[in-house]
Design goal:
The complex is a heterodimer of chains A (250) and B (422).
Chain A lengths: L1 E10 L2 E11 L4 E5 L6 H9 L5 E9 L2 E2 L5 H6 L2 E4 L6 E5 H15 L7 H14 L4 H5 L1 E2 L5 H15 L3 E5 L7 H14 L5 E6 L4 H4 L4 E6 L2 E6 L2 H9 L2 H8 L1
Helix pairs in contact in A: 4-6, 6-7
Chain B lengths: L8 H4 L12 H16 L16 H4 L4 E2 L19 E6 L2 E4 L8 E5 H7 L1 H7 L10 H9 L4 E5 L9 E7 L4 E11 L4 E10 L4 E11 L4 E8 L5 E11 L4 E8 L4 E10 L5 E8 L6 E10 L5 E10 L4 E10 L7 E10 L5 E10 L5 E9 L3 H9 L4 H17 L5 H12 L1
Parallel strand pairs in B: 1-7, 2-6, 5-7, 6-8, 7-9, 8-10, 9-11, 10-12, 11-13, 12-14, 13-15, 14-16, 15-17, 16-18, 17-19, 18-20
Antiparallel strand pairs in B: 2-3, 4-5
Helix pairs in contact in B: 2-6, 4-5, 7-8
Chain lengths: 250, 422
């Protein structure tokens, strides 16, 4: 699905990713954990195509293509999805209209006709029920006046609508109460399939009680310093991150 | 620095000698006063506060000719909003009213006809609201007006559908001044839209409209402006409102190299309300200047202004919103907002709210913002699969939509969208 090799990325002259390697195969769920400032969100932004970052070395191969050559919207059209750490509020842009435009633009990219109104509404209903999104929120401006939990649920709702192939969740769990967390996890779990992969970036082990990863990686100072199974997350929860840092510098 | 001899406005319009606006004793007197003003008034320059950002030299030093009457147009080829309306054409100032049944009590005719048929009412307004002695463009208009529309809504008459006045300018190197009067008498209700189409440049159009909204009357005026790379459009509305009167003006400037809008509102009696809405999208080297004045003279009135602009390329936007709250105008509510997005580093916006408040028990607010498109929002939309160009357009539409949505008819909104997205 995606192969990241020796990725170096910097912003305003500060190198944040310093030779990151990671491979995610189809159907797998990978969790990336790490202390604040380790480069977790940078990785998410770089993969999604944010322009503020400079890639000085390395490569990212996504479904056999060079991901770094694509614009953000091309990546989305090719099935990459980013659930944002801080979903932005966009006053005046209707949640539903924007999703419809996005969905049809993605369909056009794959040579498909736009959805009929009926098909679209049916999909809208199923997906909003999945994340228990209040019907009124769908009709409002994107994230405007939404609570933190509603914004995250709205992102998962969009993910369900767009049916990506590779979804990155950038600290989707941060700041969520347990009910919202459960709903977000339900959304993700219901979408797990053999041809869809997830990269779950989180600071806390708690999310992984609800979404069972196949692999857990620890990111520290811009590199993956340790990889393992789900049990690694528990170990991190218990010991914190400091023992890993010492291990790196030693 | 070279100092060149500055001509007077009268000299700039020398070709109009013999084309002065004549009609009645009153019209002739007003015209003569305007001609004196054109001789005496200094041509505004960058040191003139009201014209600081909007150069007038191309117009007032121009060698404009009067238009020749009788030019034909193909209405179906004109890009104007289409909606159910009583239609009036003003071709180079020449008035043509399409046959259409008007409700009783609606008088719609050319200014020339009104001078004959409605002489007293005509003369009670003409030259009384627009100041041809102080304002140079109003003076030009007054001296050389060739046509225009007179609309009167009699007491308690409701207009069944809007009147659509289509101004078409067909001749290069001409200047066309048109003058309109709108009289909405007590309790009446009406809606008039003006579309402006400039076909051959360089061209200068100058439109002055005197509006009187009587007690408890409601009137809405729209202006849809499109133009060429070398069309210079000036328009001014002088609005006087009576008690409980409501006036709304929507000014949408889609194109034209030089556009200046001067709506001036006087709230003359209590409990009257005015709404001035504007949207503008200058691009290339276009300039759009919205210069409003709202004068609160009496207590308990309200004014609301919302102007929004998106400036592309080397476009220039100017907003100047003057609000007076006179000593007697207690309990005034006056709100003004101007917001702008600069789409390029070469564009510019000069925004100046100007509130002069002489009463102490009032609520007034103003806000002016100029910024760029929100990059975070842009990235968010792109991450969902929208191409950059579509994402930008979506954000621009959301921004300007707040004004466009205030247009009453969906057909008008659609047309404005088609122009903005073009």
């Amino acid at each position: 699905m995606i192969k990241i090799k020796n990725l170096h990325a910097s912003v305003e002259g500060n190198e944040i990713l310093k030779g990151l390697d990671l491979e995610v195969k189809a159907g797998e769920v990978h969790a990336i954990m790490g202390p604040n400032g380790s480069g977790k969100s940078t990785l998410a932004s770089v993969l999604a195509g944010k322009e503020d970052y400079e890639i000085s070395d390395g490569s990212v191969e996504y479904q056999g293509e060079d991901l770094l050559e694509m614009d953000a919207d091309e990546r989305a059209k090719e099935g990459l999805f980013l659930a944002f750490q801080y979903p932005v509020e966009i006053p005046g842009v209707s949640n539903v209209n924007f999703l419809k435009t996005a969905l049809n633009e993605i369909r056009a990219h794959h040579g498909k006709d736009p959805l009929t109104a009926k098909e679209f509404l049916g999909k809208l209903k199923t997906c909003s029920e999945l994340v228990e999104l209040d019907g009124k929120l769908k009709d409002r401006s994107v994230n405007e006046g939404f609570s933190g939990g509603e914004k995250k649920r709205n992102d998962i709702f969009q993910m369900a609508m767009l049916e990506p192939t590779f979804a990155i969740m950038d600290e989707t769990d941060s700041g969520l109460d347990i009910d919202a967390l459960r709903i977000v996890a339900k959304g993700v779990n219901s979408m797990r399939s053999s041809d869809r992969s997830f990269l779950i970036i989180t600071h806390y082990q708690r999310l992984l009680d609800h979404i069972k990863p196949d692999y857990v990686h620890v990111l520290s100072e811009g590199r993956i310093v340790k990889s393992g199974g789900p049990e690694l997350a528990l170990e991190l929860e218990e010991k914190g991150y400091d023992w890993l840092k010492e291990g790196v510098t030693a | 620095m070279m100092i060149t001899e500055v001509p007077t406005a009268l000299e700039a319009f020398a070709a109009f000698e013999g084309h002065e606006h004549r009609g009645s004793t009153l019209v002739d007197r007003v015209t003569d006063e305007a001609l004196v003003a054109l001789q005496e008034l200094a041509i505004p320059n960058r040191k003139t506060e009201a014209w600081k950002y909007t150069p007038v030299n191309k117009i007032l030093k121009g060698s404009w000719k009067p238009a020749v009457a009788g030019h034909l147009i193909s209405p179906e080829e004109l890009d104007i909003p289409e909606f159910d309306a009583h239609k009036v054409w003003l071709v180079d100032g020449e008035v043509m009213i399409e046959q259409s049944e008007l409700p009783d009590g609606v008088i719609l005719c050319s200014m020339g006809e009104a001078l004959e048929k409605e002489n007293d009412l005509f003369e009670s307004v003409y030259g009384k609201q627009a100041d041809h002695r102080k304002d140079i463009f109003v003076a030009v208009n007054t001296a050389y007006a060739v046509g225009g529309i007179y609309l009167r809504l009699a007491k308690n008459v409701q207009l069944d559908k809007p009147i659509h006045v289509v101004h078409v300018y067909t001749q290069a190197e001409t200047a066309v001044c048109t003058r309109n009067i709108i009289l909405a008498e007590e309790g009446s209700q009406g809606h008039m839209s003006h579309s402006f189409v400039h076909l051959h440049g360089p061209i200068h159009s100058n439109v002055v409209t005197e509006v009187r909204v009587g007690d408890n009357a409601r009137f809405t005026l729209d202006k849809f402006q499109t133009g060429l790379d070398d069309s210079y459009h000036y328009s001014s509305e002088e609005i006087h409102q009576g008690r409980d009167a409501v006036y709304t003006q929507n000014t949408l400037t889609m194109s034209g190299v030089w556009t200046r809008n001067d709506p001036h509102v006087r709230l003359n009696d209590q409990n009257s309300t005015c709404h001035l809405n504007g949207a503008y999208v200058p691009q290339g080297k276009e300039l759009v200047d919205n210069h409003s004045i709202i004068d609160h003279l009496v207590p308990n009135c309200e004014s609301h202004e919302l102007y929004k602009g998106v400036v592309y390329e080397q476009g220039k936007g100017v907003f100047n919103g003057k609000v007076f709250v006179r000593p007697d105008a207690q309990k005034t509510n006056a709100y003004q907002q101007n917001a702008n997005i600069l789409m390029s580093a070469d564009g510019s916006m000069n925004s100046k709210p100007e509130l002069e408040i002489y009463a102490d028990d009032v609520k007034c607010s103003h806000g002016s913002t100029t910024g760029q498109l929100d990059n975070e929002a842009l990235f968010y939309l792109q991450c969902r699969g929208l191409s950059k160009i579509n994402a930008k357009q979506m954000l621009v539409n959301a921004f300007i939509g707040e004004v466009v949505e205030r247009l009453v008819l969906p057909e008008m909104q659609e047309w404005v969208w088609s122009q903005i997205e073009a």
